[in-house]
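Subject: Protein record for review, amino acid sequence with backbone structure tokens
Why sent: The fold of this protein is of interest and is recorded here as tokens.
Enclosed: The protein record, placed directly beneath this head.
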Amino acid sequence: MADRLADTRRFYELLARLEHRVGGPRRLAECTGRMDWPQRGLYFFYEAGEKRSGSGEGLRVVRVGTHGLKAGSRSTLWGRLSQHRGTSRGTGNHRGSIFRLLVGIALARQSGIDPPSSWGVGADPGKAATRLGVDRARVKSVEADLETQVSRYIGDMPFLWLDVGDEPGPASQRGLVERNAIALLSGYGERAPDPPSTGWIGYSSDRERVRRSGLWNNNHVDEAYDSSFLDVFARRIDGAGTA
């Protein structure tokens, strides 16, 4: 039987080791593609005000992610992070980032307003415009303010990253660590050792999986975790850069 509290403590001990290895967390708003990013990897976002309360001290992880797990994918870690960050002008594209989509809805609802009716509709603003029977420029205009808010909010979130350079596919250790870390941290099925604060904006989400899990994740929050992933995680931290 897994000891979830002990496993959560070990998870954060490993993150502390990772933090030391990479020289501390970065904030996405301050990042560029010219920085020294591994080709492939995982990321772990924290959020201001979201503190650990059961497993120790410090901020709790609120999103775990990776990229391109399908065989043959050429996506990169920075490519995925840049989708979450948005543009250098402070705008962004929530249709290319479920993280942005989720945060945008919660920010709008927390402010007591509904997100734009086009938010999350279609694969791009043009398709959204066609489905809603409006002009594409109108879609871009009504979404612009919320996209800017999302860029500002996510851009201020500190995060750590881990070099895991294995090939995309069902055997990827990136996928193994991602899904098990999400399942470990999620409060979807039972209360997590580090639940969200009472003021967490995720409670304003329209997604039950966000509200119940306490994470900005939609997948894997209702799954069981296998604690052996922590051994893989530890080896990857100690030998980052090896395949």
